[in-house]
Amino acid sequence: MAVASSDSPMWKRGKRSRSNSTTRGPRAASAIAAAQPAGPPPATAGGAPGAVASLARSVKAEKDANSPFITGPLQIGEYDALLVAPATANTVAKIVYGIEDTMLTNAVGQTAKSDTPIFIMPVDLREGVTVTTRPGGEKLELRIRRIDVENSDKLRGMEGITVFESPDEIEGIIQDLERRRAAQ
Question: CA angle 77-3-45, nearest 5°?
Answer without folding.
Answer: 150
